[in-house]
Amino acid sequence: MDPLDGLTDQVRRAFDRISREKFRGDPVANPRLTVDVLGAAVVAGVPTMVVLTPWTITGLAFPPDDVFPSVLEIAGRPRPVYRLEVAGLGTVRSVTLPTETAALRGMAQARDLARSWVEPFRLAVRAARA
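Structure for [NiFe]-hydrogenase assembly chaperone HybE, as requested:
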């Protein structure tokens, strides 16, 4: 198995757990959505992916040297980067992408929106690591 596939599975399991433990019944969580991981790739030596959850869409980065900026410019807009410790994943950098998932009608629409952020997130990570 590709190591990136293993990381993708770990991310999915970790965010499924967070969804069950922290967001079940929360009004910010869209009950029509589930956790999905899209666009996993290694960009400039950094494993990256976009995670769709019932409460948000997030770009994740796993810099192996733990060096990463506190802000990424994504699609012309500065976005804060959070350094988080996530059970089952360890240290991860997290960037909230579009913040509104409550109005999404279902997984197909949510996946399309999440996929639209894959390339802008990759470009921002590449620029940050250059």
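Strands lie at 36-43, 46-52, 57-61, 71-74, 77-80, 82-86, 90-96.
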